[in-house]
Amino acid sequence: MLLTHFLLTLIAMFGHSEDFLGTTLLSRPLVLGPLVGLVLGDIQQGIIIGATLELIFMGNIKVGAAIPPDVITGGVLGTAFAIMSGKGAAVALALAVPISILAEMIISGLFVFRPVLNKKFERYAEQGDYKGVQRLHILSGLLKPLLMGAVTLLALMLGSDVVRTFVDTIPPWVHSGLQVAGNMLPALGFALLMNLMFNKTVAPYFFLGFILTSYLKLPMIALGGLGVIIALIVTGITHKEVPVASADSDFDDNFDDFSTEQTLPAPTTLTSVLTKKDIRSLFLRSMALEANFNFETWQNTGFAFSIIPVLKKLYTTKEAMASALKRHLQFFNTAPHGSTLIIGISAAMEEQNAREPDFDEESINSVKLGLMGPLAGVFDSLFWGTVKVIAAGVGTSLALQGSLLGPVLFLLIFNIPHLWLRYKLTFIGYQTGTRLLQDLSKSNVMDKLKSGSAILGLMVVGAMPALLMSIKTPLKIGSSDAAVPVQGILDQIVPNILPLALTFLVFYFVKKNVKTTYLLLGLLVLGFAGSVLGLFI
User: Fold this and answer.
1) Transmembrane ranges (predicted)?
2) How far is CA 198 from CA 385, 428, 467, 497, in A?
3) DSSP notation for 32-66
């Protein structure tokens, strides 16, 4: 049993290490659930429970300073205790929600504590000690997986027998109530996703997705493909070629022809000292952008950590290195998926600064600050509001049937475009510099991309209440043999109207800024009470 607890703790620590792994969704319940099932000898149950929890926590993403319930600790412990007890997803739900809320408090405390280390970062920067900055960034980043790993291990060692005994005493009516509540909780995830995209302009596409799945029974993959086509037609993205570099730039054409040590074409006519290997290191290090996230300077140490290989090559004196480190330890925050564009541009500007004595160093931070907001809006909408929604829709629909293909497709659908774009943007940012943003601005591609992402994302979210929620009422009108099922009447009016109505009810409260924790608890109470009173099944 001790070995089992140790392996489950490693899974939780792996999930909490995602801040070093580039926001690749490896920490999601849909991914960790099967790993827990594998350790406990029931991988199919782990897949199903992971998919169930993924639906509930689908909208729980860390955007800005919003720290959602900790689905990693809650998911691992909830899944583990549910499999150990043999009671399935209902028990996982009952345990995962309160555990995730408690774990969130611990993580928030860590994010409050981390700014204490900023003085140490500043001292390293003043001394030009880039090794100290790197070391402290990594050590501070490891605090989260170590701390939450300890919490997980303690809970497993103290709680497994107690939880198993507790679960065995749960009466059937409580179990049924938990199942109904579990069917309702995905409405919160859908509402949180709607909050990212929903407005009067694109609202019809939400209902289009709902209608296509409710009436035509369109599967999620087909709906996603149709959504892409509609988004392209409506935004007109395919109607105009977008220049992203000057006409004489052959960087993209010759992108694959560089050897590891060849120098890349510089943003100016002068010879570059940076190689493809140097620029690739920016991409690799950007994966740890959020490892030391804190509530004061946010991603600043992650940005400095990412660009240090370039600074080492450009600046040979401690004074120059100190100045560069202090520049990049200023406040920074953007969507991690598109961060490499800014990192690449900053590398090009640092190279120009090292070459030209009269270069305005302040312009480097000015460009960073100017780009991080707009790019955050674009890439948050693109990846959190669109790609992740599609990946989760496809993945959970398969995983709920016990198919391992669900988690696999979930990761592939999200990370193939994510990692490819993240890698390419590093080189595009370095090669084209600020010209890229000027070209995109002239062609309105940024606006079109945001609109297209909202259209596609809302179509998929609109389909989710119909495809991934099951809320029905056993009520009947009349008596004896003449009684008419209320559910049949509702289905004739609008199929899946109860999941749709609940999703909009939760969305209303989300718009009113009601805390996610309260909404979670409210849905639990509604589902449980509705089951006990015979209103829902």
Assistant:
1) 63-84, 90-117, 138-158, 178-198, 205-234, 389-414, 452-473, 493-510, 517-536
2) 10, 31, 19, 19
3) HHHHHHHHTT-HHHHHHHHHHHHHHTTT----TT-
The 3-state DSSP class for residue 152 equals helix
> At 372, phi and psi to the nearest 5?
-65, -35
The answer to whether 411 and 31 have CB atoms below 8 angstroms apart is yes
The residues, any chain, with a CB within 8 Å of residue 297's CB and separated by 6 or more, are 115, 118, 329, 330, 331, 332
Torsion angles phi and psi, residue 465, rounded to 5: -60, -35
For residue 253, pLDDT over 50 is answered with no
**CA of 241: how far to CAs of 72, 421, 430, 443, in Å?**
43, 19, 22, 9
- What does the alpha-carbon distance between residue 327 and residue 395 come to, in Å, rounded to a whole number? 42
Report CA-CA distances (Å) from 81 to 40, 131, 280: 10, 43, 42
**Would the pLDDT of 129 be above 90?**
yes
pLDDT band with cut points at 50, 70 and 90 for residue 257: very low
Q: What share of the chain has pLDDT > 90, as a percent?
A: 34
Which has the closest alpha carbon to 354: 264, 273, 269? 273
247 has a pLDDT exceeding 70: no
Q: Do 347 and 274 touch, CB atoms closer than 8 A?
A: yes
Between the two ends of the chain, the Cα-to-Cα distance in Å is 37
Residue 252: per-residue pLDDT: 44
C-alpha pair distances (Å), 448 with each of 63, 337, 433: 22, 18, 21
**pLDDT value, residue 446:** 55
